[in-house]
Amino acid sequence: MTDPLKPGQTIGILGGGQLGRMLAMAAARLGFHVHVFEPGAAPPASEVAQKTYSADYSDASALDAFAEAVDVVTYEFENVPTEALDRIEAKVPIRPNRRALAVSQDRLEEKSFLNEIGLTTAAFAPVHCGATDAAGELAQGLVDVGLPAILKTRRFGYDGKGQARIKDAHGAPAALDAMKEADAVLEGFVSFKREISVIAARGITGQIACFEPGENHHRDGILQTTKVPAAISPELRERAFGIAGTLLAALDYVGVIGVELFEVDDSLMVNEFAPRVHNSGHWTEAGAVIDQFEQHIRAIAGWPLVDPVRHSNVEMTNLIGDDLDLAPGISGETGARLQIYGKAEARPGRKMGHVTRVLGPASGR
Ligand code: AMP
Predict the structure, then answer these.
(1) Hey, what CATH topology would domain 10-94 get?
(2) Contact partners, residue 76, CB within 8 Å, separation at least 6
(3) Which of 217, 220, 271, 279 to mutate to test the pocket of ligand 1 (most atoms within 8 A of CB)?
(4) Atom of ligand 1 nearest to the CA of 192
C-alpha cells in the first residue's frame, strides 16, 4: 500500500499496553478504526479499540485473521517475535519495518548497527553467559571496555531489568550469575552529565520531524520525569536531531522513534533506541502542537507529518504504582494534563499513568 489511508480504514496495533491505548485514541481522532492484538488479559488499549485479538503471538490463525482485517500494522511493544511479523507482512504492510524491530530487540546488534552508521555508543563486548568459558570472556571484556561496567542481557531487558553493574573485578561472578546464562553485552560505564532523549518521526516520503530533546531522570531504573527543554547547548540540540535523522534514514523507517542519549563532555552517545512511541515523549501531549501518538499514526497512515513546534516548557512525571492515588489531587491543578491508563491493579513499579505540567511558554528554541 502506498496510497495514504483514508478515515474509516483500520490500523492494527501489536501490543495492548498504555502506548497502544494512546495510539488508538490518536487514531480515532483522525477517523481510523483500531484493532489490537495482545496475548495478555485486560489490555488497556482494548477499552478504546474496536476489536481485540486475544491470542498468543505464535497463534497463526489469529495472526492471519488480524492481518486480513486491517490496512496497516504497527507495534507498541518491542518483543513481538519476528516470526509473527513475517506472517503478518505477507498480508499487510508493517510500519515501522521489521528490521527496525529486529535490530532493537538485540542490544548487541543494536550497538553494532549504531556504530556501523557512524554513531557513538559506550564501548561494548559480547558475553555468552551460558558458555563454559563465560568467566574468561567476561574477564577479557572487562579489559576491553574498562571498569566500572554494566552487563546487560541482549534481549528482553527493560526499565533497568536484566542488568548488573560491575564496580571492580570482584563483582564479575555475581554479575554473571544475574544473567542466568542468557547471552549478554558488556558495556563500559558512561559517566554522563545528563540523559536526554529525542523523539523523532519519518514519514512515508522520507520527511523527518524531530521533537525538542527532553531531559530524563530515572528512579529505580524506571523513568520518573522528562523535562523539556533539556538544558543542553544549541550545538548538542542540533547534534541530537542529526543523530535521530541518521538513524531514521539508515533504517528506512516510517513512524515515531525514541532515541535515548547520554551527554558526555561536549558530545552525545546513543544508549538505545525504541522503534515506537516512547515514555519520554508523553510530554508532547501538553507541550507541542502535535503529540507523538498522532505523529506516529500520521506517519504509518502515509499522511504528512506535522512540524512539531513546541509551545510550552513542560515536565512529565510518571505515576508509578501507588502514585496513582495522587491523581485526584493533581486533577485540580491548573496546567496539569493527566493520562490514566486504566490498569486494574497498581503494583509497585507498574506505570499507571502520567501527568504533564505546563511550566510556562516555550523558551530555549
Ligand atoms: P537501558 O535499559 O539500557 O536504557 O538502561 C537503563 C538505565 O541504566 C539508563 O537509562 C542509564 O541511566 C543506565 N545505563 C545504561 N547503560 C549505561 C552505561 N553504559 N553507562 C552508564 N549508565 C548506563
Answers:
(1) Rossmann fold (3.40.50)
(2) 13, 14, 15, 16, 17, 19, 20, 23, 45, 276, 277
(3) 271
(4) 21
Q: How much distance in Å is there from the Cα of 157 to the middle of ligand 1?
A: 11
Taking the centre of ligand 1 as the mean of its atom positions, its distance from the CA of residue 271, in whole angstroms, is 7
pLDDT (tens place) for every residue of the chain, 365 residues total: 479 999 999 999 999 999 999 999 999 999 999 999 999 999 999 999 999 999 999 999 999 999 999 999 999 998 999 999 999 999 999 999 999 999 999 999 999 999 999 999 999 999 999 999 999 999 999 999 999 999 999 998 777 788 999 999 999 999 999 999 999 999 999 999 999 999 999 999 999 999 999 999 999 889 999 999 999 999 999 999 999 999 999 999 999 999 999 999 999 999 999 999 999 999 999 999 999 999 999 999 999 999 999 999 999 999 999 999 999 999 999 999 999 999 989 999 999 999 999 999 999 76
The Cα–Cα gap between 101 and 263 comes to 25
For domain 194-361, give the CATH superfamily.
ATP-grasp fold, B domain (3.30.470.20)
The pTM of the full predicted model, rounded to 2 decimals, is 0.96
157 Cβ below 6 A of ligand 1 = yes
Q: Return residue ranges of the chain for CATH 3.30.470.20.
A: 194-361
Architecture of the domain delimited by 123-188: 2-Layer Sandwich (3.30)
